[in-house]
Amino acid sequence: MAQNAGFCAAIIVQLPFTSTDERDALWFQNRDWRDLIEVEWDEYFRGLFFFTNEAIAYYLPSVILLSTKPLNQRMLATDSMLMRLVEEGIICSVNDSGPTDRLQLTVKECAVLSGWLQHLCSLPSYEVGTNRIRIERCQSFLAQISSSEDSEMNSL
Question: What are phi and psi of 66, to 5 degrees?
Fold first, then answer.
């Protein structure tokens, strides 16, 4: 997952800004993922839908860390991030040649993402419903990536 704060400046969106949601994406420009807090994610979560894959990779650690803290309510950014990762095929895309990870996660990052998904599964608000299905799809995809990497390692 990208770590360079300056890097995110050019990767947020590639559209002219015409809506409040697109302006929400612009709000993230030049903001370090480590400095974001829950209130900011709750206010600007719609901006996630205008992030490039690189921006998703850059800000994903922020959503993961904040959503694992005890919160009074579910973070809208968590739901939005799950939707982007799964519904848009950013991470859970499978084609004829096997699983495709558009974020190009390392083995360690896949393990972190898998642990995060396990954590979400333990929360009452993710026991059933659409987000539970998204989590299960993402977990299945990560397992496919792990098994294909294991196969590649064994063939060497």
Answer: -70, -35
The total number of structural domains that make up the chain: 1
- The model's confidence at residue 5, banded by pLDDT at 50, 70 and 90, is very low
Note down the domain range covering 25.
6-155
Q: Is residue 135 part of a domain?
A: yes
* 84-92 own/partner pairs: CB under 8 Å, 24+ apart: 84/48, 84/49, 84/51, 84/56, 85/56, 85/134, 85/138, 86/134, 86/137, 86/138, 87/134, 90/53, 90/56, 91/138, 91/141, 92/137, 92/138, 92/140, 92/141
Mind listing the pLDDT tens digit for each residue in 123-154? 888 888 888 888 888 888 788 777 766 555 45
Residue 1 domain-assigned (yes or no) = no
Alpha carbon distance 58, 2 (integer Å): 4
Whether 57 and 103 have beta carbons less than 8 Å apart is answered as: yes
> Has residue 109 been placed in a domain?
yes
C-alpha gyration radius of the chain? 16
Interatomic CA distance for residues 149 and 131, integer angstroms: 27
For residue 79, tell me if it sits in a domain.
Answer: yes
Q: Supply angle C-alpha 14, 134, 64, rounded to 5.
A: 65
pLDDT of residue 37: 94
